[in-house]
TrEMBL record:
Residues 680-730 form the Lacto-N-biose phosphorylase C-terminal domain. Residues 454-675 form the Lacto-N-biose phosphorylase central domain. Its EC number is 2.4.1.211. Gene3D superfamilies: 3.40.50.880, Glycosidases, Golgi alpha-mannosidase II, Immunoglobulins. It holds the Pfam family LBP_C. Residues 12-447 form the Lacto-N-biose phosphorylase-like N-terminal TIM barrel domain. The gene is gnpA. This is 1,3-beta-galactosyl-N-acetylhexosamine phosphorylase.
Length: 734
């Protein structure tokens, strides 16, 4: 059974979903959870009793959708998205036809034929040449494009603008929740773009009228503003591709024309299509794409600020949901604070996403929504395990909340579904109390961190803080989990974390507070660096920095760029390189080092779980390299001294509590601070300790689903504790 908190029941800091028709049960649940705020969800409405129950009432608000009558009356205002057709091969002589929507969900998209010669682009992917508009034509009645004289046996694609005729989020909820079956009258909402004719004026007036019509609402929960992250569904109404950071749905002829007028150059379809990669965050961002991000972010911030001002003028708070239409409001971007939001709420998909929400600047408070959603896909099927999902969500997020508490928590969805599972209600009741305990016991003090900061080095830098290696909001991906484990571990470890870009380090050096840098990623990605290592300047700066007494940790294929006979450009610092079947004639004789402080929590050297690993054999480049884990012919962990500094290599680092502990040990060793292994440190890797010197208290948490016994080392004293499964304990030190 999960740990049951024994703290006195308190109230506050909790937002719960409500809906119409179950007033008595809602009252009981508000009391049980200690909720002080309630909210509706997409597809539910606030009951009349809402304002009687709690201090604050939230309501979702959609600036770019929701008024179907207005959308239908203004068909020229649809949101656009750039798509790429399927790749089609010219099988011989004669015209080649391409149905541009083949493979896409035709209820989501229709082709946009506005100035097709300007905004569509046909590319011969075999030669890389663009086919001139005079060489192709499109039948607007069918969406079929014809290339008159293709080169036989070459492959072709069409980059084209599409109109979104069904709002992405409403479509997802509609399909997931079976709204078409339960409510055949439910409309399929069309989105509208605030850059287009009359939309901005309408959006402002509609918000004013809505505020006047809903005096019971205290907090306007903008969900979110104008442009949805990139998502397209396939022929069968299933997700085809998803990019949490994607900007290809923020385009329109109006926006592209405005960009050209401001920047002095014209963007192409390929600038968004990016050969079918759609500028996903694993790609090294081009200067043109960076310009587009800045351009759209300034526009969105300006318009969002006006909507926030309207809410404030009506005496309401303004909250943004970090999701759905959040493109252009990246919370660590330079323009975000200017919006003037009171709060941000986001979903806790992992410790990293929870830490992301907690550290958003420029808002008065932050709120996290725990999983699961109270949706039928969780609560209405055989084998449903909402308690298990609640435990998973809390256990992963708690680590981050301890290090940087969020102000509030909550859940979302149809509360009537959750009420059918009493054991689930019992569990989230305990979670709500444990969340409040962290605030009350700490007294608002943050736990002590290590005396040095950790820097994460990649192409994105601070813009994508706590968001590396993510595809769709912390969903698991085989090729990414070996790397995202780094920030997942750091989210709950006692370190201040800085996210640094290659350009920043090249131009300004490494910030003084950073004691250890981490570069983690696969070769060619924005996270490893690709071309950033081409001219040697970055490698030169980091060699000098490490040699001066600092630490470097590389994961997977760090600093990977084929140059000068090395694949890892910092192989001399890290002590390893990767074999790509070009130097098989060279013999190597690695020697395994036993008993190193980094691997002290591994039962045996081969027990280290590197996930998918580096994708090839990793070997040592000098005899001074210490091999700490070696298995199946490849180095998995290595340690190396370089000048007065130190470096550690991991072939991969998926998150587990053992890997998190191993990373913590590696950071201390790389910084030359092994003494920290006996100061506010626990002996069992499933446990973590947070020390609050001003309160003279510590919080010890158990990240395992079984009971564990651990010893806390701190202040020259020891405490032995036995913690229940997922349990925690506050200890007064004096």
């Amino acid at each position: 059974m999960p740990h049951k908190t024994h703290s006195p029941r308190t109230t506050g800091r909790v937002t719960m979903p409500i809906q119409e028709g179950i007033d008595d049960q809602i009252r009981e649940l508000v009391t049980a959870l200690g909720a002080d705020a309630v909210r509706n969800s997409d597809g539910t409405w606030l009951p009349e009793i809402a304002s009687e129950l709690v201090d604050r009432v939230y309501s979702t608000y959609f600036p770019a959708r929701g008024d179907q009558d207005w959308a239908l009356a203004h068909p020229d205002t649809l949101v656009n998205q750039y798509l790429m057709s399927a790749r089609v091969t010219a099988m011989g002589q004669g015209p080649l036809t391409i149905d541009v929507l083949d493979g896409y969900f035709r209820e989501q998209f229709v082709p946009c034929y506005e100035r097709v010669e300007r905004f569509w682009e046909v590319i011969d992917r075999t030669s890389g040449e663009v086919v001139a508009p005079s060489g192709w034509s499109v039948d607007e009645s069918t969406g079929v494009l014809t290339i008159a004289e293709p080169t036989p046996w070459h492959e072709y694609t069409v980059g084209f603008l599409a109109d979104q005729v069904w709002d992405t989020t409403q479509m997802y909820n509609y399909i997931t929740n079976g709204w078409g079956e339960t409510d055949p009258t439910r409309v399929k909402e069309r989105p509208y773009d605030v850059r287009k004719n009359g939309v901005w004026e309408y959006a402002q007036q509609a918000l004013r009228e809505w505020l006047e019509a809903h005096p019971e609402v205290d907090v306007v929960r903008f969900t979110t503003f104008f442009y949805h992250f990139t998502i397209a569904f396939n022929t069968h109404g299933e997700e085809k591709f998803v990019d949490w950071f994607g900007y290809s749905a923020s385009v329109s002829p109006e926006a592209i024309d405005a960009f050209e007028a401001e920047y002095g150059y014209a963007l192409r379809a390929e600038d968004f299509i990016d050969a079918g990669y759609y500028n996903n965050p694993f790609r090294v961002p081009s200067p043109r794409f960076r310009d587009w991000i800045s351009f759209q972010s300034r526009f969105v911030a300006d318009k969002a600020k006006r909507l926030v001002d309207i809410a404030h003028e009506a005496g309401r708070e303004a909250m943004m949901f970090l999701g759905d239409n959040w493109i252009g409001t990246e919370p660590f971007g330079e323009h975000f604070p200017s919006i003037g939001l009171d709060a941000v709420v986001g979903s806790a998909g992992s410790a990293a996403t929870t830490r992301l929400i907690a550290e958003i600047p420029g808002v008065r408070y932050s709120e996290v929504r725990f999983l699961p959603y109270f949706f039928p896909d969780v609560f209405n099927h055989d084998g449903a395990d909402p308690v298990g999902q609640a435990n998973d969500s809390w256990l992963t997020s708690r680590r981050a909340i301890v290090r940087k508490p969020l102000d509030r928590m909550g859940y979302g969805g149809y509360v009537s579904l959750a009420l059918e599972f009493p054991e689930f209600i019992d569990r989230i009741t305990d979670i709500c109390q444990e969340f409040r305990d962290i605030h009350e016991q700490s007294g608002g003090e943050l736990p002590e961190n290590a005396p040095f900061a950790v820097g994460i080095l990649n192409a994105w830098g601070p813009l994508r803080s706590w968001q590396t290696h993510m595809v769709a909001h912390a969903l698991w991906y085989k090729a990414a989990y070996s790397y995202v484990g780094v920030i997942e571990a750091l989210a709950g470890l006692p370190f201040k974390v800085r996210f640094l870009s290659f350009d920043e380090v090249r131009e300004q050096g490494v910030p003084e507070e950073v004691g250890v840098l981490i570069n983690a990623g696969a070769a060619g990605t924005s996270y490893s660096g690709g071309e950033a290592w081409a001219d040697g300047r970055l490698a030169e700066i980091l060699r000098e920095w490490v040699a001066a007494g600092h630490g470097l940790i590389g994961v997977g294929e760090p600093a990977a760029y084929d140059k000068g006979g090395s694949f890892i450009q910092l192989s001399d610092v890290l002590g390893v390189d990767r074999e790509r079947q070009l130097t098989l004639n060279t013999d190597r004789y690695p020697t395994l080092v036993e008993g190193h402080v980094i691997t002290a929590d591994l039962k045996r050297a081969s027990a280290f779980d590197d996930g998918e690993g580096a994708g090839g054999d990793v070997y040592t480049v000098s005899e001074r390299t210490q091999v700490l884990s070696y298995d199946d012919g490849t180095v998995k962990i290595a340690a190396n001294e370089f000048g007065a500094g130190r470096a550690v290599y991991f072939s991969g680092l998926p998150y587990s509590f053992t890997n998190s502990r191993t990373l913590q040990r590696a950071l201390y060793w790389a910084a030359g601070r092994e003494d920290l292994l006996s100061r506010w440190f626990t002996t069992h890797p499933a446990t973590e300790v947070a020390w609050y010197p001003g309160r003279r208290k510590m919080l010890v948490t158990n990240n395992a689903y079984e009971a564990v016994t651990t010893t806390v080392l701190g202040d020259g004293r020891e405490w032995q504790l036995t913690l229940e499964p997922m349990g925690s304990a506050w200890v007064d030190v004096d």
